[in-house]
Design goal:
alpha+beta; 2 domains; Hydroxymethylpyrimidine pyrophosphatase; 4-stranded parallel β-sheet; Alpha-Beta Plaits; 4-stranded antiparallel β-sheet; single chain; 251 residues; Rossmann fold
Length: 251
């Protein structure tokens, strides 16, 4: 029996590095990990994150799994040398920087209908927000990456009101979209914008996962749980949203 391969599926932001504002005030800013759109320093690695990064480099295959767009992932200064990347919350599977042909073939039949669905959802939400009569209505915009409609973005100027959130819930359900929301923003995503689905595709169709392979998933947020569950083992920072919820469940 072969020993199998060691495969790492890893989130990037807040797992392998953190933005400067998220770092403790006394933490050194010596290990640059990402820059912003103007090529200015944005994120750094703590010593623990740097050690974790070094461990991942011993793997046979490392696949970044990130909400970053295809162009934002290029601003990561860590040497992401693997063949595959999963970007834009799972909407894109990249091979050597381009959309993987197998992935494009899988989602291409859905793109036109998805674009129409997202446009319709945006129109319905704008009408719903206008009817609420709030001083500043949340904005709605369909985001695309490499020609693929990724999701409908909803942004509030302050906190997303309960009424606005309820409208998002209703519109998502009515259009067959998945809602992801926090205090200020929301996103309505089509079925293929899913990190777990993209990871399963990479493992099954591209990497050709074998029973002898060992897969570890790294992530920090609840939105990472799905793709981490595709792995054999899961690892999360203890100062993360995910770990906070684990602790709450254990009490």
């Amino acid at each position: 029996m072969s020993q199998g391969r060691f495969i790492v599926l890893t989130d990037l932001d807040d797992t392998l590095f953190a933005s400067e504002r998220a770092l403790p005030a006394d933490a050194p800013r010596t290990h640059l990990a990402a820059t912003d759109a103007h090529n200015q320093p944005l994120s750094y690695q703590t010593s623990a994150q740097r050690a974790l990064w070094a461990l991942t480099q011993r793997a046979d295959i490392v696949v970044p799994v990130t909400g970053r767009t295809s162009y934002a992932i290029d601003r990561v200064t860590l040497p992401l040398t693997g063949q595959y990347r999963i970007a834009s919350h799972g909407a894109l599977v990249l091979e050597e920087g381009a959309l993987a042909p197998e992935w494009h073939n899988a989602i291409a039949p859905q793109l036109s209908a998805t674009r129409q669905t997202l446009d319709d959802a945006a129109r319905t939400l704008r009408q719903a927000f206008a009817a609420l009569g709030e001083p500043i209505a949340p904005t709605c915009r369909v985001l695309e990456d490499m020609g693929v409609p990724v999701y409908l973005s909803i942004k509030a100027s302050g906190t997303l009101s309960h009424q606005a959130h309820a409208a998002c819930v209703s519109v998502a359900a009515g259009h067959g979209l998945t809602l992801h929301a926090n205090a200020r923003n929301a996103a309505l995503r089509p079925a293929y914008t899913c990190k777990a689905a993209a990871c399963r595709f990479v493992l099954d169709q591209l990497i050709k996962r074998q029973p002898e392979d060992t897969v570890i998933g790294l992530g920090d947020s609840l939105s990472d749980v799905g793709f981490m569950g595709v792995s054999d083992f899961a690892l999360a920072p203890t100062n993360s949203q995910l770990w906070t919820h684990v602790k709450e469940l254990s009490q």
